[in-house]
Each structure stands twice: as C-alpha cells, then as structure tokens.
Amino acid sequence: MASESTTGPYSLIPLPEDLKESKNLPATIRQLAPTPSFLFLKVSSLDMSMIHNVFIRALNSIHLNAPKVTPLDMEEETMFPVLEKKIAEISHNVEQHKAFHDGMDAFKQYILDVKAKKETYDGEKAAELCKEFAKPMVQHLHDEIPTISPENLSRFDDEPETLQNMYRKVEEHIKSQPGKLTVFPFVMTHHDFKKAPNWPPVPAPIRWFARNIAPHWNSSYWKFSPYTSRGESQTYNPAIMA
Question: Which regions span the lipid bilayer (predicted)?
Fold first, then answer.
C-alpha cells in the first residue's frame, strides 16, 4: 500500500513521533475520568486526533474505492454545551458541524436507497456525494483539536466535576449505541497500529474481541479499509477481493 500521504486527498492530523511507548502518551486530563477508558473516545487532544484520523482514513477509502465497486450527534448534545461555557472557540466547531451535515445526510440516504434497491449503485456518484461533505468535515476534524487542547481544558481546573459529569455522559452514550460488530472493526481497520500500538486505550479483552472476533461479522465491509484487523496495510483490488 502507498504511504498514507498518497492514499487519498484528505490529509491526516499530525501525531507525535514517540507514541510506541505507552509512557509517552500524555496524561492530559485522563486522571479526571470516572473509569479507565471510554471505549474508543476520550476527551483529550491526542485521543481525539486518533479517532479523527480514523474518520479521515475512511473518507479517503471512499474516495479511492467507491469507483472500483460496480453494481452486482453525541458531540453537539453532550460535549459542546459543556465546553463552550469556558472555551469560546468551541462555537466555531458547532458551526462547522452544520456545514457538513446536509451533505453527509445526502450520502447516507443514497447508500440506504442503494441497499433498498431504490437506486442502482454508481461508484462515481458515491465518490461525488462523499466529496460534497468531506472537505468541510476534514477541515473541522483538524480544527477541533486545538480547541480541546490541555491548555484550554485546564480552564475547568476549578470545577473538575463538570468534566467528570461530561465524561460520564459520553461513556454512557457510547455504551448505549448499537453496532459493536461494526464500530469496533471499523476503528481497528482504520487505525495505524505501527504509529500508535497502544491506542485505543481499552481493556485487553475488548481489544482482543475487536480485532479477532468482531471483524468476522460483516467481513465484506473491511476489505475496503486501509488496514486488516491485524493492522497490516491492504489495498482493495476488485479482481481478487470481490
């Protein structure tokens, strides 16, 4: 597979070079967390960078692979209202969300219509629909990181319970969501484990399940991912992976 800088039009968020050692993962505000982990989401700039790169890799996969296939908001409700009390910059993130919602909804509706056989799949159309929302979405994914920097979040040092309550709601929301057999392998097959082998910060049994069991369901989905569930690079080839 080509280097990540050439595997799609959307650039990844830069990460520190020393992520292979868990001791180098910045603690930021994790000590305030009510539990050791939040499955695949934690409110720190590093963890948010990781999950945002997962999304960006997925957009690049759609851009690259959609034409090869032939026919045969938790943040807004839970995090933003809390953070914008002391981080005024967060309001820009809210506006950015609005900028790509309509395009994302149109893409989702098209995929649902294809699945329901109301439309015939057209790879070029899928790629174009993705392009409509991908650029503002990727811009948002990059811009959001500085607004939740440790420096900004330190503004809550005088009321740590506010962040604790927010974290708790985020965790409850994630645990309540269906689709563990799709969300887990989606994250695992769009994350660069060579760059950050200790992420996501989940208990070992969940990590083992996510990498060894969950991908066997809906296995046809993950052939489009940039990585296998074992973290090996792969490129979709319709001639051998159909």
Answer: none
The pLDDT tens digits of the residues spanning 106-159 come to 999 999 999 899 999 998 899 899 988 898 889 888 988 888 777 777 887 788
SS3 2: coil
* Structural domains of the chain, count: 2
* Alpha-carbon span 153 to 28, nearest angstrom: 9
| 196 and 78 housed in the same domain | no
**Domain annotation covers residue 5:** no
- Which of the four pLDDT bands, split at 50, 70 and 90, describes residue 60? confident
Phi-psi region of 28 (alpha: psi -120 to 50; beta: other; left: phi over 0): left
120: left (phi over 0), alpha (psi -120 to 50) or beta: beta
Q: What pTM does this model have?
A: 0.71
Give the separation between CA 106 and CA 83, rounded to whole angstroms. 29
**Are residues 143 and 59 both part of a single domain?**
yes
Classify residue 27: in a domain, yes or no. no
Would you say residue 6 lies in a domain? no
- 38 sits in which H/E element: none
Distances (CA, A) of 155 to 10, 81, 137, 144: 32, 15, 27, 17
CB 13 within 8 A of CB 141: yes
Q: Domain range spanning residue 73?
A: 33-177
| Cα angle 222, 16, 8; round to 5 | 40
